[in-house]
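Hey, I was hoping to borrow your eyes for a little while. I'm sending you its amino acid sequence along with the backbone structure tokens. Take your time with it, there's no hurry, and the full record follows here.
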Amino acid sequence: MLQLRIAQGSRSRRTLGRTLLAAALLTAVTAVPAVAAAPQAQQASTTRQAPATAPAAPAAHGNIGTPAYQQVAHFYGAYIDAVSTEGGGELATALRKFYLTPQLCSRLDAWERRNHADGVLRAQNVPLALRVTPGDSATGHTWSTVRLTWSRGEHPMYSYLTVRSDLATGRISDIGD
């Protein structure tokens, strides 16, 4: 179980740190295909022949060896920081493209138009904390439970989401209530 709590005093430092980490991760991921293609381009120019087969596409996700529930926790932590930061909309969109499958992105867009809320959080506001718990795996997928904390005090309010990840790609393929 991975749990993140956002303390009032350190919230801006954590938000800035996570936002910078997410931006660096996204920058590194976009740079990897260009660096990987460079040796092949150099080899092709010295032999003056095109390669017989196209190079394999890089993995869709940089942390495939990481357990899926940790990937979900990384995504939700960075996403919550991005949407709670002024001007974080571009980063939130980039995080969605990186961590979510294209099919899920289009389903979330439709859900958001119908419900006038954020489809990733299933809410109109931002939670105070989150906890991710691993679940079962079967047929190439694994499920995690995300608990979002909406209030503090003696009786905090929670909502729960079931998040499905593809084991082959490490990307999130479904979010349900």
Remarks:
- The helical segments are 11-47, 68-84, 89-99, 102-115.
- The beta strands are 2-5, 129-138, 141-149, 158-166, 172-176.
- Residues 11-47 form the longest helix (37 residues).
